[in-house]
């Protein structure tokens, strides 16, 4: 199933995509956000499917305003340097333990919404990434059963303010400027993709030029391993997000550097998950 969060006349709403149309689940009595359905587990997802099978009203996708699939996760954990080639271009040795940092909901927007270059920097970089959404709570999860805890996947552009990222040994500032990243266009349940979302082509394009082109099979720490290691520290709960890292080709590593500026269009496409597209704007 493919869920889309969107803006309706009465506020945020949740829909289930069927082809090029959307069933308004919220109008049919279900929650306005994805999180409550995820907390209900299989029953919540089945309820959405049942409503879609009974509801005949459809909204054309071209008419909706997309919102990020999730906007209030208990935790959004991003992974740095999770591809060997990206570690190399960033002048780091490949990590033997995941490089982890937080990403705050105020730092992302949905599909088609502008991402914002802050007034204090010109070093605004793109990072196309696979996003994992937890659907079943757990602590000390074994890697052998970790994928049972995955509800589904999406796409994330981990927009980074590079000069602020390197002001200290902690990356938080450079990774959390308001509206600097994006998330979407939809949440895709795990059963629609290969186990662990392996073998999917990930491509980032800036103004139509391919900047990143890799496979999710090339991640140093795969989805199951990330879940197992992260859950050693704290319980993962439904709606938690793991932003699983970017491959080589980032703007900061290019000669000359290729940073995003107002008027640009950044697209991240992952096989089976769709296309996340965002224009770039300067902070007002």
From TrEMBL:
Cross-referenced InterPro entries: FAH, Fumarylacetoacetase-like_C, Fumarylacetoacetase_C_sf
Keywords of this entry: Metal-binding
Molecular-function annotations in GO: isomerase activity; metal ion binding
Domain of life assignment: Bacteria
GO biological process: carboxylic acid metabolic process
Pfam entry (one): FAA_hydrolase
This protein's record includes keyword Coiled coil: no
Annotated Fumarylacetoacetase-like C-terminal domain residues: 76-280
Family: Belongs to the FAH family.
PANTHER family: FUMARYLACETOACETATE HYDROLASE DOMAIN-CONTAINING PROTEIN 2A, FUMARYLACETOACETATE HYDROLASE DOMAIN-CONTAINING PROTEIN 2A-RELATED
Protein name according to UniProt: 2-keto-4-pentenoate hydratase/2-oxohepta-3-ene-1,7-dioic acid hydratase in catechol pathway
Protein's organism: Methylocella tundrae
């Amino acid at each position: 199933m493919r869920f889309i969060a969107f803006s309706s006349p009465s506020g945020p709403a949740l829909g289930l995509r069927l082809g090029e149309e959307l069933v308004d689940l919220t109008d049919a009595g279900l929650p306005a956000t994805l999180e409550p359905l995820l907390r209900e587990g299989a029953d919540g997802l089945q309820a959405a499917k049942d409503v879609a099978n009974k509801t005949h009203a459809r909204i054309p996708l071209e008419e909706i305003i997309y919102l990020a699939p999730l906007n209030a996760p208990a935790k959004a954990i991003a992974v740095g340097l999770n591809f060997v080639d990206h570690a190399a271009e960033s002048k780091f040795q490949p990590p033997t333990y995941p490089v982890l940092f937080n990403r705050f909901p105020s730092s992302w927007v949905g599909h088609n919404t502008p991402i914002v270059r802050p007034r204090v920097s010109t070093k605004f970089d793109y990072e196309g990434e696979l996003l994992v959404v937890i659907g079943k709570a757990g602590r000390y999860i074994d890697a052998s059963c970790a994928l049972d805890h995955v509800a589904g996947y999406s796409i994330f552009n981990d927009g980074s303010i590079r000069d602020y990222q390197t002001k200290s040994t902690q990356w938080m500032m450079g990774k959390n400027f308001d509206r600097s990243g994006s998330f979407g266009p939809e949440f895709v349940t795990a059963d629609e993709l290969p186990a662990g979302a392996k073998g999917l082509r990930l491509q980032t394009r800036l103004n139509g030029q391919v900047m990143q082109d890799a496979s999710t099979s090339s991640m140093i720490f795969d989805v199951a391993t990330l879940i197992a290691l992260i859950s050693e520290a704290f319980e993962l709960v439904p709606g938690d997000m793991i932003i699983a890292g970017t491959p080589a080709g980032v703007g900061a590593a290019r000669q000359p550097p290729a940073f995003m500026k107002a008027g640009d269009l950044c697209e991240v496409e992952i096989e089976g998950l769709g296309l996340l597209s965002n224009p770039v704007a300067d902070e007002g």
